[in-house]
Fold each of these.
Amino acid sequence: MQYTFSDGEFMSARERELVLKAWVRFLKRGLRFADFTKRLYEHLIQHCSFIAHYNRGGFYQTYLESGEDTVRFLSQFDKRGECRSVEYGGPWLHGDYADLNGAMVEEVAPYLPALLESAQQSQRNADLAEAGRFLAKHGLQRQRRPAGEALRHALRKKDLADIAHPPGQNKGRPGK
């Protein structure tokens, strides 16, 4: 997309274009630290309602190293939601940088599904690895079921729950 930026007191139109270019490169390459430029970091902490977390590395570690944190970070730019600051909870798409911040929200849209899926898979893998460490600590192993068996097991549990409490019936309250 093409955007028209205006010069502001602290950031020229050209600098805004460079921040957006860095943002798109960062998204396109999968949120790699190598692509998390100083220019992008400084815009995020100065004009997008993020806390600095000491430095660029601290910010990246806080928001982009774990899947859950990455999902939280991306939610601030997800136009399907409220685009609220994940740090403060309020709006941030206003003021002198609304043009650039709005462009950032627009530009993330095509990358968002894949980035969210990757972050969620990363978190799942981390959670399973941690569960494995806890099991090993206690001399246990994770039981693996073939996919069909796991589905049958889940259905059996649901069927048993429905027998105990049929849908539409008030549980334990006769006459109601």
Amino acid sequence: MRVYWLVLPLTAVIFGSGCASLQTTTKEGVRFVQSQKIYVDCPVDSVNLAPDLQTALAENGFNVTDSPNLTRYNVTLAYKAYRDVFHWAFHSMNVKVTDLYSGQVIWSTHLGDSQFESARTFIRRVATKMRESLLSEDVVQTAESIERAEINVADFKKYLETNADELDEIEGIWSNFENTYKVAIKRKEGGRFIASILESEVAGWTVGEVKAEFSETAYDGMYSTKYFLAGKLKVGTTSEIDGRGMLQIPVITPAGSNFNVSFLKNYPPLSRDQSSAPAKSVAESPSKYDDYLQAVVVVRTPSGTGSGFFVSSDGILLTNEHVVGDDRTVSIKLRGGELLMGYVVATDVKRDLALITVRGKKVPWLSLAENNDADIGDSVVAIGTPLGELDWTVTKGIVSAYRENPSGVAVVQTDAALNRGNSGGPLISEKTGRVVGVNTYGFGKANIGLNFAVSAQEVKDAFSRQLSGNRK
């Protein structure tokens, strides 16, 4: 028996006759939020069954969307068929519903080759069974519960004026960049701030609902953040107020898409110094190192700031393990100012290396060196964010020696200036333009010209599987 994917029009597919009882599985204790959007995904859909399932689900009361980025629930449809002497016939069909917020399969059904019926009949019965299982009284929720905090605009402005000298810079009235809603951000107890909606043109969001929660960190202008997406899904991130006074919130949706939410401050008005663009920095000035600079990023976590650089156009980047620590998601700032969220996908504590991926973004990247890329005495440049503040700083030196650290890890010794915050940035050979090492540590509280980078070969050894085939 030879197995193929279905290739004939729906009316020509023979699934036999009869109508077997569908056996379904619903996760125990699941709560299904009816207002959340649901998306039908069929990776191989030779006879175009996905639109039929979308229609059937909508007719059964589900909130169907065509966008995988706006959904909470993903419905995966998979099917095969076999060909005998006379015709193509049904082999198997599976449907499962995944809650992208929790990552759990909450409902599933399977039709094997001993159960026969037409494709359209099966699709309609699947939708009916899903309704009976997920929209039943003991499972369904009409809406996600969310905190409310009614704020009177006049009273809030008076509060801002009265406490002007003690306000955190995040406090005030803000509008999103698209000007579709306005929020008041006010301090609550325990270093916490809430963003309450004052005006909204976005369906599903009403005045008084909390759009985001912020908590102070040890770094000025940076906040641990819980942000509510469409459908009231709460996602964690790290936000910051940039040099122009704009609030930037990088977000990864449950479907894995990256996007940035920007807010403009309406009140109190920013001073001229706050709202004007900052003076040109090294990162913004034309330089022969521009190609390198574009691939370098600032890596921020609630506990610190470091550097990193892309080694793949698909968004794979390197930094130090001590930069990310125990955090599984980090904030990534691109040279152009865009903030993204990154997932920590692998670490090597012994080598002090970490691998991060940024999804859905094509980026400039740097190549890792071969063994003979830089001899002792050859010129190298280090790029990073020294002291956690001076973004995209370039320093120059030479390869002083190749050594092993006390853990037996191969390192490159250099006199290129490295300071706190340079960790995770690239050490680049000027001769070849390739990365010879990942900057990691130096001796002394201030730079004394005795600094080290984990060698490129150690990177390849640590992450050979993840980096293979991911350079372009």
Amino acid sequence: MITRVVMPKLTDTMEEGVVVAWKKHEGETVDSGDVLAEIETDKAVLDLEAFGSGVLRKVLVPEGETVKAGKLIAVIAEQDEDIEATLAETPDAPKDSAGTSQKDKAPQPSPSPVKDEKKESGKSKKEQVGSAKTQQADNAKKEQEDSVKEKPADGAKDDQADNAKKEQVDSVKDEPSETKADTSPAHGIKASPRAKRLAEKQGIDLSSIKGSGPEGRIIEADVQGRIDQPVTQLAGQGKKGKDIPLSQMRKAIARVTTSSKAPVPHFYLTTEVGMDQAERLRKQMEELRKSPLSLTVLFVRAAALALAHHPEINVSYTGDALRRHATIDIGIAVALEDGLITPVIRDCAGKNILQLAEGIRDLIVRAKSQQLTPDEYAGATFSISNLGMYEVENFIAVLMPPQAASLAIGAVNIIPVARGNTIQRSRRMKVTLSCDHRALDGAQGARFLQSFKRALEKPLELFLPLDDPPTHHNVADQ
């Protein structure tokens, strides 16, 4: 039985992945459940397991290559099975979710696109006919370009230098859409389909590249050379800079934050929290347990209590309803070398502070080594971001849909505070709540902050069972 191995979509934000390493090689026997490869997602490096048994007959994607989710990357089958039909059916699955047929793979020349292109160039029908009959020199280059786009087999003859023939043949296999009439802004620039694909992926203007192929045609090596240039001159500056390709994680952060900040109406509420009692509690716990409770643990416990007392904050906007979540699942932003990840502590209201401490410690360690599974960093109903260790006094967090609220925590500073007729030193920190105005209003967010603040300023509450909330809390919905 033939098993198609595709790049999996492991998270909601994942659009592509990188094949880090193949653990099985062509010709090796594979059993269901065996690890085939390591895949780098937008958040972690995960194992790709086989869903069928047989022989790894074909590996279609080399190590280190970025692949769209859903694209065929390998084929597992018995040694005597014919896999040619499988390879021909879906060579480029990501661009067409319905699959690409054999007919689409090698499109035949069609007069329709040529006619349309000539109309767009401003020629009259009479001029088109005359040009076709006489093959005037001033139209020769355009006809040659059209033949490359519509007749891959003929165009390949012009690409013998610099391995351009291989680019054209590969592009017919991998990018059938490249062989169709080109109506993009780059139309008119002589470039191989592989060069166009790479330039589009890297955001490079083909008009700025000098081609090294026949008659100045731009090939993939020309575009790669531009990418590999060590430095570029920054406009208006004497300094030099370097373009660094985006990691999968940075691409995901760009997509998610853009989709959140633009359409979601944010509003922000800031308050100041006294941390003197909480710091005394941490020192007492260190004396008793020989290991202190981190501030992050206190913040998560205080947020869990506040959310339990104000469940209207633990919601998501769905368009025509507000979904109130059954559990409190808090995500903690953890900084990594090339971005950040948000491991999620599940059912925070059902755990005491020591259980939270153990769970948070384990998640953070595995997050920094990129060993989290997708269900451990997805699905948070509320999130906390703490930049206090970097001496950031105050900041605001961008909401991560579908969360309706997120808490940004600044540094704990020692400042003079008036108490009665005296001035005393006090540990204070600022926290800012970001809210989705489609789901929440200002008074709701303010009441949540009151509960959060009270739990930290009177930290004994952090150790009390949730079943016995203090009577001074306002638990009524707005």
Amino acid sequence: MPTNAVPNWALQTWGASNTLLQPGTIINLAPASPIPPAPVYALDDEPFAKYNEQVPYTLKSSVADALVRRGVGSRLCDGAVGIELEAEGSVDNPGFMFWKAEADGSLRNNGIEYILKRPLSLPDLKSALTEFEEKTKHCKFAVSPRTSCHVHVNVQKFTFQELYAVVGAYWLFEPILLEHCGPSRISNLFCLQASDASHIVSDVIYSIKRAYEYPENAFLMEFNNDEHKYAALNLASLPRFGSIEFRSMRGIYKKKEIYDWADLLYTFVHRVREIGTVTTVYQIFKESTLSNFVDLLFGPYADLIRSFPNWQDSIKKNSLFLAQLSFFAARAEKGEFQQKKSVGRKVKVPSLNYATPTLALPSTYLLDDALSDDSVPVISSLEIGYITTDDY
């Protein structure tokens, strides 16, 4: 398939209602409705698209569906993971096939960021990492608390209920994963874990209730760079790329280290997806031994999780986050949250930098009646604080 062709799974999803989408067809961005370069909207700025009230989002809606309905279907792709490597010291940009090198203002000492040009399958990632290792073998990367390895896992095909399952399960193991990533990453302001930034937990949990009360809110698609980017699990990448970004790993530059970390995260995310819902994850967690639960979620990487001192206590300590998220999801599944009347609120739109995206994805565009100017849902940020007893 050409790099800018519509993915087959996207054709299967929307092709029935769109005669323009045929297998193998390459569809470029329509000049009449281009994706605007680097839109950054303030609270009272225009334009704001109207919300299509006839098709509210539910927990069974997919991330891909939300991307298409929001006019950024060009982000759909088949790649499994994306990688960003921040480096300082004696660095170089020798020219790559798989990578691009960009200056990064957060780095010092000739800092540069190496970014995969597009998401890749895991086998292709090995080739990309081989290229990176060979072309940078003369570089002397410096150890720095500012450098890191970020891994994006593509979740475009996931439903929101599967996505909440991944987030809830991840919170259980976050302290262990942070410890694996290195001491400089613990309580690091650029990769805050849930225990260091409780507003992120409340935002995730309350986003379920808010999406049912105001269906223009597409659950976790409302997360934005201003409030959520620097979490160890960055959900602000969802409305931009349809990915979740793991920011916790220290700066690493060896092929095996990078691949093993990316494979661990990919394995974990997709094993949790197979469970289906966060309520099921929580049920299995309560009814299984911790060792068996770790085997189920991490597979070949389970021994790594169990190798850390007090790993069981760490998981139990963070289980409250999973329990709260499961509780809210269960209430939503029972229909306890009622839709409130939409009053066409003007809301803050997340900062989306399409001019220089972190991951350069295929330039395709899904054309559909749902993308007409008068029916694209608004993109709003969460207007919530900490969860109180009143919310229960």
